[in-house]
Amino acid sequence: MTEKTCPVAQLIQDLEQVLASGRLHDAKNHRRSEEIRALLDDVAWGRAGQEHLPAIRQLAEEMCQEAASDVGDETGGRVLQALSDAEEVFQSHIDTHNCASGACVRLAPAPCQMTCPAGIDVPTYVSLIGEGRDAEAIEVIRKDNPFPWVCGLVCTRPCEFMCVRGRIDKPVSIKFLKAFAAERALSWGQYKNPSKAPDNGQSVCIVGAGPGGMSAAYYLALKGYRVRVIEAQPSAGGMILLGIPRYRLPREVIDREVAMLQDLGVEFVFNTRLGEDVSLGALREEGFAAFLLAIGAHKAYRLGIAGEDDYPQVLDAITFLRAVALGKRQVPGKKVIVIGGGNVAIDAARTSLRLGAESVILAYRRTRHEMPADEEEVEQAEEEGVEMRFLTIPEAIVGRDNVLEGLRCLRAELVAQEGSKRMRPVPVKDSDFVIEADAVISAIGQQVDSAGLTPLEGLDWTRRSTIDANMVSMETSLPGVFAVGDAVTGPATVIEAIGAGKRAAEGIDRYFHGIPQPKMPPVPVRRGRIQCKTLTATQKMAAKRPEMPLLNIDRRRTTFQQVELGYAEPDVRDEAGRCLRCDICLRCGKCVEICRDKMGVNALEMGYFDFDHPVETDFRMTAERCILCGACAANCPTGAMQIEDRDGERILSLCGTVLNRESLTECAVCGTPMGPFRYLEYVRKRTKGVGPLVESRLVCETCGRKTAARAMQPEQ
Amino acid sequence: MSKYYLFQDTKKCIGCNTCTIQCKSNKNLPLGPKISQIIPVGPKMVGGLPRATYVFMPCFHCEDPWCVAACPTGAMQKRAKDGIVFVDHNLCVGCKACITACPWGAPQWNPETGKAVKCDYCKDRVDQGLKPACVTVCTTHCLQFGQEVDEIVNVRKRRHAEAVAALDSNAP
After folding, report:
1. Cis before B43? omega within 30
2. Cα-flanking dihedrals φ and ψ of residue A536, to 5°?
3. Going by fewer Cβ within 10 Å, which terminus of chain B is more open, N or C?
4. 3-state secondary structure of A335
5. Number of Cβ within a 10 Å radius of residue A640
6. Is A697 in contact with A703 (CB distance < 8 Å)?
7. pLDDT exceeding 70 applies to what percent of chain A?
8. A634 and chain B: CB distance < 8 Å anywhere?
9. Judged by CB atoms within 8 Å, which residues 17-76 of B form the interface with A?
């Protein structure tokens, strides 16, 4: 869905052209065209229901049948053609209230929602949280993501990287707001499952209780399926339990959200590994007609260096973290080296510290700038005492008598490589040195452990040894077998797995109903249009993203207690107020253009509208120059910019942010508000050369007319 | 002053508002704006009997229009060839400066388009040799439209001057 034009907007434009051209002389067909246009407007404004498309189709067919002219026939045909060419897009406008291309301006989606792999309606839930409506926010989130609390703590938050507020100061703290709302709703007993469809008698088996598999389980259960999740480990969570350490994601968070799924009737069978304890054939016989492979990527890549297999103190991070997560809390060594620069490496390093390692060194081939790990994670690791060694390439693990003594490394330099933005580390000759250590943990990536799936004949694999699946429907090469998560993408994020899980649920549902699978990825659904919070320009500008309070450093080095302590409630509500409401304001810049180029007032300083050339943004500046003429609001295509006369004042606001307000001068005769002083001054100045009228007298247009008529009435 | 006249014989007018309705319909205007309007004046007691007058108020098409001066975008213009004052809707941004500036309320607000509208003597019709829409439907034939003759120009100029003077003298 990256096309620039939208077939809905295009068809409306075409119809308007025909109507304006006056070529459609036949009155009946003219009326029909107008009706079609009105119905299409509904589609483009998100007001359409399921009857709209059939109604449009019928009108168009009538036009063709009863065409008194070629123009009528042609127009009807054009409409029918557009409907059949792009039916999915028309339907998606009705279902999702989003126009992915943004051409239907009222339905232009917010960047945060579009970038979220699960397509969560961020502006809506952030606004709800801002109003203290946490339970409703959770309800909105769970329409696209069954694990708001988990994601609120560990999501890689692509939304925040796209957040438009980041162009002004810092992105809205979307991730944590979600965690706050989930925690609050759970604690107050308001975190509820939606009602599910009645049992449809069909059974689905999901292999792997990670975020991808469990998301599919959730949406399938809601659709009325009987879902069983089999899991090799003794508890649910997958990588979020085994890979993510407890100081980032407490066990209770996973347990509580998994319990919500059990409440829905999802059956979990633990300690059951596909291919060992149970086979697909046996499950088929038991009545499962569809399968979802969500086995993750739990097999570590090998370092491929000398000594790797010679010492028991050489571990891979994922095995190490899994052991710790499952209760085997043993310090790997006194001096630990972790190899790698991703989040798993950081997790292994910080976990080693907490288990009692005296020193932890993280060796990475590139520099800090290239580290794939989350910036905040790196920072926190360094605070805790993890030492970073950049441009360091491991060459061999050295030791004596079965005891590891260190890691021999080479210094690297970064060299630009053709066709890639990423610099490549190249070893410097004769630069080798040894870092002393008694344990080495490698964290250089994971791959799919395909052992359990080898009996599945006909299952296609990619060249990267992941399951080959259609990324829209999540179908594999085997009918009735679907796949999601890291098993398909290779090591990726929780939120990507969740998005895929939801798509898989839709794909499986279609499989059971024999409906063709979608061709395009789903368009994120707009879940509401929450009224904007009224704030002053100063409040909007001055609010700062709160610092995350952290656990004290001694506890961070010694315990697995949650490091990020969370915001206080007032901070959460204020933080939500920083949202610029990109679900309503399209940032098209029309207001700025009109104020600056047409009115010559130049009161709007909205640098953040322009992604490529951001200049200063200051909402407070508007009040200095704005004359409250209202031209910006009159030309705003989405109603984001609004001007209203209330309580003797004229108020200009953008998505609830009051940009300017001034008291109104009234008509000298009837008292109707005429405009604020500064606006009248503007008109006065411009008309100075014409005559003194406006200066001496202020009358509204109605009174002006009445007075003139009275004056013109001939004497009788 | 435009080179046309649109003259109303108030003696004949019965205030049926057909002109206003036709005007709105011709310009496809929504609820709200009346760019030509019948303003009832009175009733006054004349010879012991109440008598009302109905004054047709379109636009004067001033010689030196306030609205044109006020318009910051150049949307409000005076047509050079015949002096008709009109709004170019492609240029209008809806700042309402013309509405505020005009002493007679000729430019009006169209809430549907977010732009100003005003009487332009139906210049599209005039250009085709037709009369303005209001004139064509006047039930009592009290509205007359035509090219100016000197006498009428003088009458109009006098009336316009009177209107201005009356407003000034009424100033609070």
Report:
1. yes
2. -80, 160
3. C
4. strand
5. 25
6. no
7. 97
8. yes
9. 37, 39, 41-42, 44, 46, 51, 53, 55, 57, 64-66, 69-73
Instruction: Tell me whether A595 touches chain B (CB under 8 Å).
Output: no
Q: What angle, 0 to 180 degrees and rounded to 10, lies between the N-to-C axes of helices A7-21 and A87-96?
A: 100
Query: What b-and-e string marks burial along A150-174, b requiring 16 or more CB atoms within 10 Å of the CB?
Result: bbbbbbbbbbbebbbbebbeebbbb
Among all residues of chain A, which has the CA nearest to that of B114? A634
* DSSP-derived secondary structure for B114-143: TEEE---TTHHHHHTTPPPHHHHH-TT--E
Summarize the confidence of residues B59-65 as an average pLDDT: 89
- Tell me the one-letter amino acid at B28: N
Counted residue by residue, chain A has a size of: 716
B12 at A interface, C-beta within 8 A: no
d(CA B37, CA A208): 76
Q: Which of A690, A701, A716 sits opposite B64 (nearest CB)?
A: A690
Give residue-wise pLDDT tens across range A263-281. 999 999 999 999 889 999 9
- Helices A70-85, A52-65: axis angle to 10 degrees equals 150
Contact present, A701 and B99 (Cβ < 8 Å): yes
Average pLDDT for A633-637: 92
Q: Residue A462 — pLDDT band, cuts 50, 70, 90?
A: very high
Dihedral through CA A575, CA A577, CA A580, CA A582, nearest 10? 100
Q: How far apart are the first and last CA of chain B?
A: 28
Interchain proximity B70–A687, CB inside 8 Å:
yes
- Which residue type does B46 have? V
**Cβ-based burial of B168 (10 A; exposed 0-12, middle 13-18, buried ≥19):** middle
Q: Are strands A641-646 and B49-57 parallel, antiparallel or unpaired?
A: unpaired
* Strand spans (E) along A92-184: none
In this complex, how many residue pairs, one in chain A and one in chain B, have their CB atoms less than 8 Å apart? Answer: 129
Whether ipTM > 0.90 holds is: no
Phi-psi region of A402 (alpha: psi -120 to 50; beta: other; left: phi over 0): left
pLDDT (tens digit, 9 = 90+) per residue, A334-385?
A: 999 999 999 999 999 999 999 999 999 999 999 999 999 989 899 999 999 9
Q: Are B56 and B36 in contact (CB under 8 A)?
A: yes
B155 near A CB under 8 A: no
Identify any residues that bridge with A398 across adjacent strands, giving them in sequence order.
A406
Task: Please choose, from the candidates A159, A111, A120, the residue with its C-alpha nearest in 3D space to the C-alpha of residue A611.
Answer: A111
Is A20's Cβ below 8 Å from some Cβ in B?
no
pLDDT at B153: 65
Predicted confidence (pLDDT) per residue in A289-315, tens digit: 999 999 999 999 999 999 999 999 999
Helix A27-45, helix A70-85: angle, nearest 10:
20
Residue with tokens 């344990």: A439
* A517 close to A504: Cβ distance less than 8 angstroms: no
A158 pLDDT higher than 70: yes
How far out from the chain centre does Cα A111 lie? 8
3-state secondary structure A373-402: CCHHHHHHHHHHCCEEECCEEEEEEEEECC
Q: Are A523 and A508 in contact (CB under 8 A)?
A: no
Residue A323 structure tokens = 């052991």
Distances (CA, A) of A504 to A19, A148, A477, A495, B140: 44, 19, 14, 14, 75
CA-CA distance, A591 to A657, in Å (whole number)?
15
Chain B residue numbers with beta carbons less than 8 Å from the beta carbon of A19 are: none
| CA–CA distance, A672 with B118 (Å, rounded to integer) | 21
Place A614 in a pLDDT band, splitting at 50, 70 and 90.
Answer: low
Q: How far apart are CA A1 and CA A456, in angstroms?
A: 34
HSE-up of A692 (CA within 13 Å, CB side)? 6
